[in-house]
Design brief:
4-stranded antiparallel sheet; alpha+beta
């Protein structure tokens, strides 16, 4: 079993109770016969989208962490694709925090301003 993180963006018309009902259905696909477990759920609520998705300008965001075998993901993702209230989702392998920053900060020379050093 591996650790995963998923971000769901549901349609803005859904209330938190309706989102929870959908999440319970999705959790059943991961935890049922597959033996996975949901380790954390964080409701971010309604947020503005960066760009219009399916004629929507906002969405209801939920972030979850879960453990599941890789064989459980195809059926889980198929159910997400078929659910019309899921605008977008992204599942990634959660490998923990990065031990260092991906790009080390560049040292500033004496003859340049802070803005030039960052860009």
């Amino acid at each position: 079993m591996r650790d995963y993180e998923i971000v769901y963006i549901f349609g803005p018309e859904l209330e938190e109770e309706q989102v929870n009902e959908k999440l319970e259905r999705f959790h059943g696909l991961l935890t049922g016969a597959n033996g996975g477990e949901i380790t954390a759920t964080d409701h971010w609520g309604r947020r503005q989208l960066a760009y219009e998705v399916e004629r929507q300008n906002s969405g209801y965001y939920v972030v979850e962490h879960f453990r599941a075998p890789g064989e459980a993901l195809p059926e889980f993702e198929r159910a997400l694709k078929l659910d019309e209230s899921v605008l977008r989702y992204l599942v990634v392998v959660n490998e923990g925090d990065l031990p260092t920053t991906p790009v080390p900060p560049r040292e500033r020379r004496d003859d340049e301003s802070e803005d030039e050093a960052e860009g």
